[in-house]
Design brief:
The protein has 289 residues and is mainly alpha-helical. The protein contains 12 helices and no strands.
Length: 289
């Protein structure tokens, strides 16, 4: 019984760590700036993961370099756009909108009619979150756009990650990709927030965010993935918008409306349904990626 539930608990702990780290990052924005906070997160995470997995000891094939750079660039731009979105809209909503990226990859990779149902349900969720009315609960349009942009980069991150996974071991790909992401995003932090990015009060929070949002949860997820089926892993990961919403409420005081909770629920159910629905191999002419 313990062996069955321990990896599930480990994965839930990883999700809580990621979202709590994001809530701390949101409090870091006024101190280090959004780009500065994103840069600190990626730099700390890259240093931690590279120290553990030592990717420099791996000889990369020529064909893998392009995918590695695209993988790292997608990771960096995903993080940067997500943090800029997080500065404008609540954490739970930002995560739900960002989830449209991996959800789109999963749906486009399927051929069952049910996949269209999950796509429709996700579309309803996104529609409910669109800032179409001038109300106190209306979301910042730029924040919504940036969260969806982060979802696009997340989708690209998955696509390039799958390609890279056939060429490089997972931990080496993750640590190398994180280093490339840090190299790409750090100039943004230096240009926009150089004067405050390395302030004494910003560094401890930046280190915390880097460890709890990236390095620690990645290690926990890797541990869980070894001991539970990939489908179970995907279904549990679909709960991340719910974790984000609760953590945003508890630690950031972000109260969501009933409609916003419903929208997040639509995205979660669509993501879980897509993960649970068996996939059939795509015919050669229909392969998207």
């Amino acid at each position: 019984m313990k062996d069955k539930f321990l990896p599930i608990f480990t994965l839930l702990l990883a999700m809580a760590s990621i979202q709590y780290g994001a809530s701390v990052a949101k409090n870091l924005f006024p101190i280090a700036g959004v780009a500065g906070a994103s840069s600190l997160r990626l730099i700390v995470a890259a240093l931690a993961l590279c120290a553990i997995f030592r990717p420099w000891k791996t000889k990369f094939a020529k064909g893998s370099i392009k995918n590695l750079v695209l993988y790292g660039a997608s990771l960096g731009l995903m993080n940067l756009s997500f943090y800029f979105a997080l500065a404008k809209i609540p954490l739970g909503i930002a995560v739900a909108l960002e989830f449209t990226g991996p959800l789109a990859v999963a749906i486009l990779g399927g051929t069952r009619k049910l996949d269209f149902l999950w796509a429709l349900l996700a579309g309803v969720g996104i529609y409910l979150l669109l800032p179409m009315k001038e109300t106190d609960a209306a979301l910042d349009p730029m924040g919504v756009f940036l969260a969806l942009l982060a979802g696009l980069f997340w989708a690209l991150y998955i696509v390039f990650g799958k390609r890279l996974g056939t060429q490089v071991r997972g931990p080496v790909a993750a640590s190398s990709g994180m280093a490339i992401a840090a190299i790409i995003v750090a100039p943004w932090g230096l240009v926009l927030n150089a004067s405050v990015m390395f302030a004494p009060e910003a560094l401890p929070m930046g280190i915390f965010v880097g460890l709890f949002s990236s390095a620690i949860p990645y290690s926990l997820e890797m541990s869980a993935l070894k001991r539970i089926p990939s489908q179970t892993f995907s279904i549990l990961m679909s709960l991340e918008p719910a974790f984000a919403s609760v953590i945003g409420l508890v630690f950031l005081g972000e109260n969501l409306t009933g409609v916003q909770w419903l929208a997040i629920g639509c995205v979660i159910v669509a993501s879980q349904g897509s993960s649970f629905t068996p996939k059939m191999p795509l015919s050669k002419g229909k392969q998207k990626f």
